[in-house]
Fold this sequence. Notes:
The complex is a heterodimer. Chain A is of the alpha+beta class. Chain A has helices at residues 21-33, 88-95, 99-103; strands at 3-10, 38-43, 51-54, 64-67, 76-84, 105-110. Chain A has a single domain (3-110), classed as Dimeric alpha+beta barrel (Alpha-Beta Plaits, 2-Layer Sandwich), CATH 3.30.70.1060. In chain A, 23% of the residues lie in helices and 32% in strands. Chain A is globular, with a radius of gyration of 16 Å. The termini of chain B are far apart.
Amino acid sequence: xxxxIAFTYTADVDWTDPQYGEEMxxxxxxxxxxxxxxRGGHSLYPTATATTVRTPAGKGGDPVATDGPxxxxxxALTGYYVLECADxxxxxxVAGRLPAAWNGAVEIRPxxxxx
Amino acid sequence: xxxxxxAVARLVREERPRVLATLIRVTGGIDPAEDAVQEAAVRALxxxxxxxxxxxxxxxxxxxxxRRAIDxxxxxxxxxxxxxxxxxxxxxxPGPLPGDPPGAETVRDDMLRLVFTCCHPALSTEAQVAxxxxxxxxxxxxxVARGLLVPEATMAKRITRAKQKIAxxxxxxxxxxxxxxxxxxxxxxxTLYLIFNEGYAAGGGEDLVRGALTGEAVRLARLLAGLMPDxxxxxxxxxxxxxxDARRAARTDPAGCPVLLPDQxxxxxxxxxxxxxxxxxxxxxxxxxxxxxPYVVQAAIAACHALAxxxxxxxxxxxxxxxxxxLTVRDEPVVRLNRAVAVxxxxxxxxxxxxxxxxxxxxxxxxxxxxxxxxxxRAGRPGExxxxxxxxxxxxxxxxxxxxxxxxxxxxxx
Lengths: 115, 414
């Protein structure tokens, strides 16, 4: 069975803030309902906590860390789920039940299975 | 190639998509299936003209392709098979190949699986069009590229990427469950309609290669109707394509210039195709008791035109009513524009003009300006009509279309 990552793109919110309690409850309900296919995942702190790293001097060079996410976008990467589904149709059906699907968008990517 | 060779080539081309559809299921991938079918087709082209066409050409091709596929699968199995695994199609069952050629029912199901996989909504529209022509229509990559005015290398890349997405993202090889079927059928219909319009817009004359896409779309719609004979969308689509395509010979003059509906020589319309199209409209309407289907309604409008002995004898009341029905399921500016034209014919240019000017969002659409121009001319406002033709001509039009509008503009000045 293929493995997919479902990335949730939503408003750049702080999930630990009690004002998102209601939404977190929706995610918890999703987790419950989809537990048969969920293999893992995390909620992420907002992009204000993000650090982007590059080594401008090339391979082996000193890492230079800059404040902020890789790309500034209206909707931010706020979490992800690892899903094991029969096929893309099932993955789409599961992703469609994520609150991010109506509050933002969900991107599904198949995972490369290295032998 | 001689006549026998031609006939064989046509037969092989005809059977090829069906054989491919089954081979994809049994080999578990599009690429290995294509290789196997290609090999079988080459052998058929070599041996049939010499030894005669077998009683059941499809079964012959299936057996030959399957034999080839078994060889390849065995060879792959000996290797690590890592890549083969990564390229496998979900829902197909690689493994032991069935001994007997599949029955008609299985061939039908395989073909439907292929239709829904090629027209899966997770593929871009461009990719769906390319895959439908390549795998369902059996066109070569070069033919698809020429038809869509894309360099062959670009088209080859597009098709490869699409097949890769099917395999890697796990787009399944199966007919969608009943609950999803209407939406998915609408997606397939949209893709075939797009193919038809690519060819229809090109018209006749110089653009014969692109024009051939209309025939290809009709062929695919017919195939789909054979697979789903009770689906109203599918019947409506086939009816719509047949009724539009029936006017083909009358749509251009000998110089290749477009001839619009009012001026077409209706004796040159294809009467047999119109008869078939109209019957299909009836069959499709009987199957849509609840919610009108946009393709069936558009086909009904096309039937009103097709059955009218002359433009003046068009039943405009009925045409306007059908547009009202269409608006309930597809409220789009272009539909409103077409309805306004029908209203102008029924109630006079002023009534049509008022509706045309009420439609927002078509400032970039040349036919909105051209329609306005025509109605302004009829309403006796030549100055404004000229200005509207100029606006239309400033937008993106094909050379013959622009020529047509320029002649209207010149007529206005004289």
